[in-house]
Amino acid sequence: MTTAVRPDRRARMALASLLAGTLLAPLNSSMVAVALTPIQRDLAQPLATTTWVVTVFYLTACVCQPVLGRVADRVGPRRLFAAGMAVAAVASAVAATATSLPLLVLCRCVQAAGVSTAFPCAMVVIRRHGDATRLSAVATVNTTAGAVGPVLGGLLTSWAGWQAIFWVNLPVMLGALVLAWRAIGPEERQAAHGGLVRAIDPVGVVLFTVAVVGLLDLMLALPRVSVPGLAAMVVAGTGFLWWERRAAEPFVDVRALGSARGLVPVLGTFVLFNLAYYGAFYGLPPWLQTALGFDAAHTGLLIMPIAATSVVATVLGGPIMRRLGVGRTLLAGGGLLLAGVAAITTFDTATPAWAIVLDGVVLGVPYGLCNLGLQRLMYERAPAGMSGVVGGLFQSARYVGAILAVGLVGAFAPGDPAVPTEPRALAVAMAVVAAAVIVILAHDLRRPERYHR
């Protein structure tokens, strides 16, 4: 005999399961960073090859987030989320027992696809319940998981080997699966007009994937120009836009996105914001190690305030937005981002450690505020029936910004490994990007009705 679950309790259970699933993507993308050297040693592979364990996760998640968001919009979140958790659990278990790098990379690809169901499904469920305040919980989980990932990954790897970073996923994934199946409403929408495969739009998905791969190849090749990467990005990106405007069942309804006033600027601003933020986040460690002589442990301690402050700012972001409004909160975050990256232009070998830590605190605040504020605007401006795919595109914008940042960090790095890294040129470029973020936000703020809901 089953016991009925009260609606309010059921809603809380559903949110808890989706939050558990949502933390898995940032957690698994960050935990593995500190396990690369042990993986390289155990599997006897060069470090450059081993980094595919990281790259393939980002690439797969970047593509799968909007694709699976489309599926969530069509069939509902319950079965999709449960299937994603089951697939990710199997992939994690196989990854923990992998004895070759190709198998491990394949498992990471499948794992990324599975956990990519969580954020789009969370957007669909939040839209279903009509409670935008739950967005703060989603943003907090995302930020916190990314911040604690390297620490947790380091502890697990030290205690039980790199395999532990995959085993630790299983109770979370299976618990989220069981809880979601019980709590998320059973009402599911069926794909029409030829079934789910046609609704997903395979041609659009392939063109989108090729464009993202081309962008990744182009940025990782900097300062050289990868002709194949550039060609793939331009041709596939143009073909994607052309196809999506004409497809009967587009994977991304670009017409609807274009007609949803203010949505495209939100996605574009999020790309630029992450480009500036991750440019500083990834650009500072090489300078700290090559120019100032800090080891990896001390470098991590100096960078930790960025992640720690971002968590605090995300938690406090909800009350701040309720008091100041979303627009003013975003502008304040953009101003702090500009101040943080501009300060790096003054750094040199005489810069004291306390100044670096203080700048990290300044940089962490806008990540919490802007991430939460832009997520709120994305949710409000998403067209009806597109919450999942728009949520997926929002996450893809985050990954694209990070990819661009990694490419620019490499482009500004000296060609000779013996030459210390100089942060000023990169910081100037990031300051220009941060200024562009402020300009776009200020222009959008001229329509105040969007910011006071």
Automatic annotation (TrEMBL):
Keyword Oxidoreductase: no
Pfam families in the cross-refs: MFS_1
Compartment list: Cell membrane
Cell membrane as UniProt keyword: yes
UniProt domain Major facilitator superfamily (MFS) profile: residue ranges: 14-446
InterPro entries: MFS, MFS_dom, MFS_trans_sf
UniProt keyword annotations, A-Z: Cell membrane, Membrane, Transmembrane, Transmembrane helix, Transport
Topology within the bilayer: Multi-pass membrane protein
Ranges annotated as spanning the membrane: 51-68, 80-97, 165-184, 196-219, 225-243, 263-284, 296-317, 329-347, 353-374, 386-413, 425-443
Protein name: MFS transporter
UniProt cross-references to Gene3D superfamilies, sorted A to Z: MFS general substrate transporter like domains, Multidrug resistance protein D
